[in-house]
Amino acid sequence: MKFSCLFWPIKFKDKVIYILDETLLPRKISYLKAHNYVAACSAIKEMKTRGVGQVILVFYIFLQAIKQNKKNLIKIAQAINSCRPTLSFKDLTDMVLGWQNKGYDLEKSILYFLKRLRQARIKQASKTSRLIKDGDVILTHCNVSGLMPLIGNFCRQQRKKISFFVTETRPYLQGSRLTAWELKRQGFAVTLITDSMVASVMSEGKITKVIVGADHLAQNGDVANKVGTYQIAVVAKFFKVPFYVLCPPVSKAATGKDIKIEIRSDKEILEYQGLRLAPKGVKGYYPAFDITPRNLITKHIYFENLL
User: Fold this and answer.
1) DSSP β-ladder status, 216-217 and 223-226
2) What is the pLDDT of residue 307?
3) What does the pLDDT average to over 144-151?
């Protein structure tokens, strides 16, 4: 089975964490070196890594601290928890601190968790492929860290031919830079559209299924994902297109209203790579996520709860 480099974008060797810099893709495959938790947390804040990369990085931060013989893991956990408010890092850091309090071998526990995480991701992709029919055209938004080409490869094993429509996913263009790139690299037919074209394309009957990821799953089934997901779900409901969500483990949030939405700097939509896109004096508003209510979701594709 072929894996995208985005499937497991973090490496750890000789007390150094290597982080795939997703902001440079697809122009360049390059890894940042993080020699301590401060540098690793900065990579999360600056969106050098996102999706599952952030989860893997959390565990490698603790593993690095153990290798560096640091005892105060509470301080490190607090730094991780403050990185991005919409993402529930606290469940992860609490788990590691709990292992420490119980006297577990932290290194073995972390490595075992990461092994299970990898297996669970493969299992989720396989499960998703069984929902797809031969000839399906799948619309996806943002990027699910290597799962979409893996789903496609499972479909190939099942002799099902599928193709993809990918939204650009503004303002970071994860769709065009990451998803379209990794799908095309593995030989899938990919059509790129702007975020505002979804209703028009669906009205033409070009889409048979929508599959998106989620960064946060509330207990009632509401999900938080990259901003723009909600409007796609509304349109899919209108045109009776199945809307599937690749879910993370359920969080402690009761409903979507309990999920804090990260508001990022307006500079990220007013500028792109140093180029000013809007006149000076124009304000920007950038909620990085939105909430899709459970009633718009055809099926939650659950991730094995490893917590």
Assistant:
1) antiparallel
2) 66
3) 98
In terms of domains, do 181 and 237 share one? yes
Angle ∠(218,89,11) on CA atoms, nearest 5: 125
pLDDT digits 0-9 by tens, 188-224: 999 999 999 999 999 999 999 999 999 999 999 999 9
- On whether residue 15 sits in a domain, the answer given is yes
Active site residues: 215
> Which value, to the nearest 10 degrees, does the dihedral of the CA atoms of residues 167, 173, 176, 178 take?
-120
DSSP, res 216: E
Which pLDDT belongs to residue 272?
A: 83
Q: What is the dihedral sign for C-alpha 8, 136, 225, 277? A: positive
Widest Cα–Cα separation across the chain: 60
- Average pLDDT over the chain reads 96
Classify burial at 95, counting beta carbons within 10 Å of its beta carbon; exposed 0-12, middle 13-18, buried 19 or more: middle
Is the distance from CB of 217 to CB of 300 less than 8 angstroms?
A: yes
Question: Which one-letter DSSP state was computed for residue 188?
Answer: -
Which CATH number fits the domain that encloses residue 175?
3.40.50.10470
Three-state secondary structure call for residue 146: coil
